[in-house]
Amino acid sequence: MPHTMSRMGDVLAGFHAAWEFESDSVLIRFERGIRTPKLFQALGERRIPLEAIAGVTLTPGKRGTTVLHLVPRPGADPLMEAAAGQLKDGADPYRLVLPAERETLAEYYADELRALLPAEDPGEADRYLVAAPEVPLQFKAYDGKASFDGKSVAFRWFWTGASSAKWKAGDQSFLVTDLSGVEWRSPEVFEGHLRLLRRETPVAQPAQADQDPAAVVFGLGYGPVHESLPFAASVLAAVRASGPAPVTQSAAAAPAGRRDPADIAERIRHLGELHQAGLLTDDEFTAKKAELLAEL
User: What distance in Å separates the CA atoms of residue 243 and residue 88, rounded to the nearest whole number?
Assistant: First the structure.
């Protein structure tokens, strides 16, 4: 007889979220408050089927807290696939931070969950088991506006931010059926991007996202994580539903290329403005400037 959660329907409340344990899933409801990470607020709630969980850990957190962490099964959640390991701990929707006095209760639920999971590693899922964020979705990037209706992705360029290459190409629309995946780079540090990967491309896509009509770029104040990541996850889920397993590519795996010196100079000027405004520390400014200069 299979093991079932003996206290089905119980709720474990932590900082920024409450987890409800059910017979076949964990329902995560995120709080809406000024201190709650914006990604959590955007997600609202998520149901994580037990078959989408590879493991459960319980570890000490900062300042005497305890962290209950569901380890997502690879390939089971489009949000985590799109993030490709770039989320900070504080924005990880699979982590529940609890006050120290609830550690014993957290241990109980961790043991209960482990008893429900397979004894061996289930491996990568062959389909998404966690629902993607619902469409329609849109967000404003630095160089354009991105929108997704479930069937196609559209980019509309801003004259104040788009490169000449994008203006020459014109506004873009991509059918999900023509895509093979997405590449999402977190905008947490300075510059990020969302690039659509196409199944058949007549010419190689530009290495730099700001020159690629199939990509939008964003940074501080433009295309934040809570807007651009759910967007990327929803596109990724639609791509998988339309054909072969989609491709995700992290920034570290992106092809390198030399950039236009004029573009580098403009980026450094913008970086300096952020530094002067106090949005970047001295160390962040120096590191990013060196990174840009290295691309010349």
Answer: 31
